[in-house]
Amino acid sequence: MTTIVARDTIRAPQRAGDRIFSTATVVAGSLILAVLAAVAAFLLVQSLPAFVATPADFKGDAANFWAYVWPLAFGTLWSALLALLIAIPLAIGIALFISHYAPRKLAQGLGYIIDLLAAVPSVVFGLWGIGVLAPLLQPFYTSLVEWFGWIPLFAGPVSGTGRTILTVSIVLAVMVLPIITAICREIFLQTPVLYEEASLALGATRWEMIAMAVLPFGRSGIISASMLGLGRALGETMAVAMVLSPSPQVIFALLTSQNPTTIAANIALNFPEAHGTGVNILLATGLVLFVITLAVNMVARVIINRRKAFSGAN
Amino acid sequence: MSKRIEVNDLNVYYSKFLAVEGVSLTIEPRTVTALIGPSGCGKSTFLRTLNRMHEVIPGAYVKGEVLIDGNNLYGPGVDPVLVRRQVGMVFQRPNPFPTMSIGDNVLAGVKLNNRRMAKSDADDLIEKSLRGANLWNEVKDRLDKPGSSLSGGQQQRLCIARAIAVQPDVILMDEPCSALDPISTLAIEDLIEEMKADYTIVIVTHNMQQASRVSDRTGFFNIAGTGKPGRLIEYSDTTTIFSNPSIQATEDYVSGRFG
Ligand SMILES: Nc1ncnc2c1ncn2[C@@H]1O[C@H](COP(=O)(O)OP(=O)(O)OP(=O)(O)O)[C@@H](O)[C@H]1O
Ligand SMILES: [Mg+2]
Known about the structure:
heterodimer, A: MetI-like fold, B: Rossmann fold, 2 domains, globular, binds magnesium ion, PstB-like (chain B), phosphate transmembrane transporter activity (chain B), Phosphate ABC transporter ATP-binding protein (chain B)
């Protein structure tokens, strides 16, 4: 073997650790794709009969599948959106309090309680929604309709039980709060001291420092956390099914007894009695939920990437 | 704009640990003062007490007085936030906000005081500050790019521009050139020389040539042993410290015999 040949054949030595690790990551990565593909394929195949179903197959008076699923899709997005509108500011506030305001001991205790909330089963939240929250909010809803009924969102007649889409959204907000808070807290704690000090040295107050350094750094993390919360809100079944008596239609009014329901709750309510094409229809609504979730996450990715150069990651 | 700093018998603590003990000195306006000394002797700690930045570290506190034009920084009712608007700081590692454009970085401190600024005023201030930091020609065509898109030396000058944009009375610099190449270092030294006309500057450095090149007065800090507090050993004109110091330890340090 000449020197030149030897030089040509120089290669990085293959270390066992590297190979095991890279194989493991490739396997893990493919596995998640395979599972996702399998779920999608199952849903797609099972859904096909729903798209050609006759009006008689649908519960209610929908003429075809799209007319059937549209109010459900609306209810799903509407309740999840309301839940996030309530949960995100609250979660950011709590996370900031824990990471930047509270004394260390209190912060630890609070963080622990928040994490505990995440472990409460959703049935419990449903019961809490029916038994505590709805009656508690009902008088408040009544005055809201009385005073602000002219705003379409708060149009009457007010629900007598308090079991409205707004109550559901509040329950959902409480359910997604822990995950969003926990992630935001971790993100805020990771803010480089370098930049916190930079803003303080410019004469920023604590809040200004947060607005200048902590939140911009946490931006993509806050979006990711919200997406995880959104995923849970979109897919939540029990709490919604328990609180709402559905009347599937597109209604924006928050406080009436006519409320849209969600795809997941609708499946849970109707699955026990469904048979034949009915099952296919429910599975097809599941497919729609799947697509909605995918689309929402892609939008979030786009938002995160849009200002990548300014993310602070480089 | 430039102000006089007087420190009287200052002790700095990290919780129970006494890090710096008994510092008294006077810094005249429109001068550059260099602080030198071995690692861990409390130079950064002391420097940060001049704009109350040490209070950012939990448990850190001082005893003693720091007077700026006669006003005690640690007097009752003094707001550290206002102190820091008066006494700016440049850190060892360049830290422009990567989440902001170059232009916004310059305005970051100004916007705290004065949120609504006419666009033309803002542009003027950006240009003036960047010119003041000798950076204008290099970045004028890319003011909207992120602050992190600059080289290390440029980033440090951007930080200086950001500090002078708020027109402080005093500028503190903690080893501003330690992460930079010799050319950028010289650029910043020239800049310090020019800024002296308007500001009182205090700079910590490990570079003896730098101290002798840029400063009018030099303070030598030392520490008796690990766990002991740092002290100001000698404080005098820079030429005296480097050519004819009155204390043996200073002479040993500046001539490179220890530390
Ligand atoms: N955040 C802190 N908490 C507790 N002790 C600290 C802290 N920062 C510094 N110290 C201690 O205070 C003393 C002085 O540290 P300081 O950083 O001021 O030294 P320095 O002179 O700036 O050193 P260098 O030249 O290496 O930067 C050291 O003993 C150090 O361990
Ligand atoms: Mg230091």
